[in-house]
Amino acid sequence: MSPIPVRTLVLGLGTFAVGTDAYVVAGFLPAMARSLHVSEGVAGQSATAFALAYAVLSPLLATFTARVPRRALLTAALLVLAVANLGSALAPDYALLMAGRVLAAAGAAAFTPGASAVAASLAAPGQRARALAVVVGGLTVATALGVPLGNLADRILDWRTALGLVAALCALCAAGVLAVLPRLPGNPSVPLRTRLAALRRPGVLAVLPLTLLGMMSGYGLYAFAVPLLHALGAAPETEMWLLFLYGVGAVVSNMVAGSAADRYGPVRVLTVGYAALTLTLGAFAWATGAGAHWLPLAALLMAAWGASTWFQTPAQQLRLISAAPQETAVVVGLNGSALYLGIALGTGLGGLLLPVGAPAALGASAVLALLCLLYLAATRRAGAGEHSPGSPALAPVRR
């Protein structure tokens, strides 16, 4: 296997900064809620605001920044993230914190789809899913390191300092992208109406709802991971390590899924993954309902939860690129919108169901995972360009 190009790794580092910004709140949610004098359910809606703003802003920013050279765009997006995190760290109340999260979403919405599209366009044929897995892997590494480190920073320092450190990380990554990424021109200006016209492609229209449902089921409750660990009887001193195990499962699964999608086809990868997600969330719901307070079980469930959530993005992106090979940047951006809309809806649903009880919230997520499996079975042949093992290389990608 050929080594991963440095520029792809740097883009992955950038998505790690984005992911740390998006997910770190889960590590200190209870402390933030207490500091801002709101409930944990309300504090968790800061993740909903971030995800919803991302979903709305992603196609808009892709349209308005189309002609901007890619290196300048990605660097500026990371700097916006740095400023937004600094503002969130200094926010005196919940309203200003939410404003900071919306600004952070704007930076993330400008960076992540662009980074994925650039990585895919620079990769050799047959290695695009691998390149996408590296870039998306930055997000999953953030769950492995960013969230537990945020939890640790909250214990040693406080949640505001943790967000300040995230701001510094975003600025550092901006410098790295500026130094390493080659000069790439902007894309031709594509009107928003034309950009959204990709939704009329049968393959694209059939694939995108699965991204939304998949993230609703797998990731929607992650903002409330610490309260769920409490429902499993986890002691405060074990929280960081259990969050870390979630991230380890996510990182390993993401990288394996990227290579497996190239080799076996994305539909097979998704079938195995959604079946595992259904079983994992169902077992999690049973454990919290039965009062199964056993640390090894909590560790196994967290690792399985991460693995069965983050397998899906490279495979879904590959399906979309195969369905619309000349519109890579457009469909990757639409997939990002669907992904974050799924997170927003899942987090909102989790905030409503968590007061009813952890088993109810986890059970609802398990049902959604089962719906993903059924939907995939119904749409597995969607898109005439569906990638399969041994299929011809995808058409050249528009940068």
What would your notes on this structure say?
By secondary structure, the protein is mostly helical. The protein has one domain (6-379): Up-down Bundle (Growth Hormone, Chain: A), CATH 1.20.1250. It has 16 helices and no strands. α12 (266-290) runs antiparallel to α14. The longest helix has 29 residues, at 94-122.
Secondary structure layout plus pairing:
Layout: H1 6-23, H2 29-36, H3 40-64, H4 70-90, H5 94-122, H6 128-156, H7 159-180, H8 192-196, H9 202-219, H10 225-231, H11 239-264, H12 266-290, H13 295-309, H14 312-323, H15 328-353, H16 358-379
Structural class: mainly alpha
Arithmetic mean pLDDT: 84
Q: Any idea what the shape is?
A: globular
Classify the helix fraction into a percent range: over 70%
Number of strands: 0
CATH topology: Growth Hormone, Chain: A
- The CATH superfamily appears as MFS general substrate transporter like domains
Q: Please compute the radius of gyration using only Cα atoms.
A: 20 Å
Number of domains: 1
Low-confidence sequence ranges: 383-399
Name a few traits of the molecule.
mainly alpha, disordered C terminus, single chain, Growth Hormone, Chain: A, 399 residues
Short description:
This protein has 399 residues and is mostly helical.
